[in-house]
Design a protein that fits this description.
Helices cover 0% and strands 56% of the residues. It is mainly beta and 364 residues long.
């Protein structure tokens, strides 16, 4: 999910393999960007709203013209799903994070990979970049956040303190403040230069999947598996508002530069636009193809360390002992004619990841 600097344009990525460009004020879909061959995990938008970047399960990053819908470039090099993308303020630099445990820095105009940043020991779930493109941060299921120098590729700091996988990171425009959200149900605010944790924001009752930060670093928004988003004062740690209305867990939240508007995307297949100050929902619009709404039936799958049981609409994943629940993301449903792939991502308390992929016929 991404929002233009003036709050007028929203971009969202979907499990139906498309990217959509929306008018945030009217809810109208301006364009549907097609080209990815797998679900779209992440999107980013340039400050002027002219360029869209998307990361996908097809292991590629795509650069799009937001106005015409044309794909300007396809960036290849990752060997795993691209979980997160970010774009510098001037639109010249792209950063991507992947299941392959790396962060890549790209020249947005030439499509060339400038650097591959290595150091995480598990999936890179989220990346962010400073306004001037000099600093990037990455969050990983190895429970750490890393601060990188984009020009040299050096890791400036490793931020430790979360007790579960880090699902999302955000960075202030000047690169001084980092925010992270984790499966440990907390949001942390960090000093990017010293690596010190300034505050731990508590209040969610489930994993925090997405965080966003206003341009001046004063306002934080977090989206959670508890079906709510929270708006926080980054300086005091106080919760200003709780946004309620989605019927399933959040996939993504984003915040306008001035901190007045929140946009959220949920597994309930809707996008919502909120007033960050009052908590009121201004607009709701759908984002999912009919083929993505396939009903769950009775299915089971098992790995060496985890077991997945799906019984008519409910899903349960546990450690091999059959008793310890895992944190679950998905299902991510892909349809191919009469066949459906149910793909589920789950994590245990150590942050270890397990994929379950079940192919079945529609209606079976």
């Amino acid at each position: 999910m991404a929002l233009s600097g003036d709050g007028s344009t929203v971009v969202s990525g979907s499990l139906d393999r498309t990217v959509k460009v929306w008018d945030a004020r009217t809810g109208a879909c301006r364009a549907t960007l097609q080209g990815h061959t797998d679900w779209v995990w992440s999107v980013a938008l340039s400050g002027d709203g002219s360029t869209v970047v998307s990361g996908s399960g097809d292991k590629t990053v795509k650069v799009w013209d937001a106005r015409t819908g044309a794909c300007r470039a396809t960036l290849q090099g990752h060997t795993g799903d691209v979980f997160s993308v970010a774009l510098s303020g001037d639109g010249s630099t792209i950063v991507s994070g992947s299941v392959d445990q790396t962060v890549k820095v790209w020249d947005a105009r030439a499509g060339a990979c400038r650097a591959t940043l290595q150091g995480h020991t598990s999936y890179v779930s989220s990346v962010a970049i400073s306004g001037d493109g000099s600093t990037t941060v990455s969050g990983s299921s190895d429970q750490t956040v890393k601060v990188w120098d984009v020009r040299t590729g050096a890791c400036r700091a490793t931020l430790q303190g979360h007790t579960f996988a880090v699902w999302s990171v955000a960075l202030s425009g000047d690169g001084s403040t980092v925010v992270s959200g984790s499966g440990d149900k907390t949001v942390k605010v960090w000093d990017a230069r010293t690596g010190a944790c300034r505050a731990t924001l508590q209040g969610h009752t489930s994993y925090v999947i997405s965080v966003a930060l206003s341009g001046d670093g004063s306002t934080v928004v977090s989206g959670s598996g508890d079906n709510t988003a929270k708006v926080w004062d980054a300086r005091t740690g106080a919760c200003r508002a709780t946004l309620q209305g989605h019927t399933k867990g959040f996939r993504s939240v984003t915040l306008s530069g001035d901190g007045s508007t929140v946009v959220s995307e949920s597994y309930d297949e809707t996008v919502k636009v909120w007033d960050a100050r009052t908590g009121a929902c201004r607009a709701t619009y759908p984002h999912a193809s009919p083929e993505a709404r396939t009903a769950w039936q009775s299915v089971s799958a098992q790995t060496d360390a985890a077991r997945c049981d799906i019984v008519v609409g409910s899903l349960s994943i546990h450690d091999r002992d059959g008793a310890t629940p895992l944190i679950v993301f998905g299902p991510f449903v892909r349809a191919y004619g009469p066949l459906v792939d149910d793909k589920i991502l789950a994590f245990n308390a150590k942050g270890e990841a397990f994929w379950f992929q079940i192919r079945r016929r529609k209606g079976s």
